[in-house]
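re the bet — no i am not wrong, look at it urself. input seq straight from the record:
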Amino acid sequence: MEVEDNMLLTLYTNNKYRLRIQHPHGASNYSGEYILQKNILTIYDSLIETKSKKKISNKYIYQKDNNKFISTKDGYKVLQIPTE
């Protein structure tokens, strides 16, 4: 899921995630675990908001009909799952 032009969040089927942030002279990669249960996505990283500069929170509600994750906190972007 592309969060911003320089930020990509990948959720793997083994309940691992990777956040890649591209900087002008390199990249930062963060990884950890998540769970998607009863349409609630929880990212198990208490610092994810700091690492992503308040672009990603650690809890979202999944809306299956339009493939979107809506943050449970105000001020965070909607995350869209790319479709092919």
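see?? The mean pLDDT is 89. told u. also Residues 48-51 form the longest helix (4 residues). so pay up
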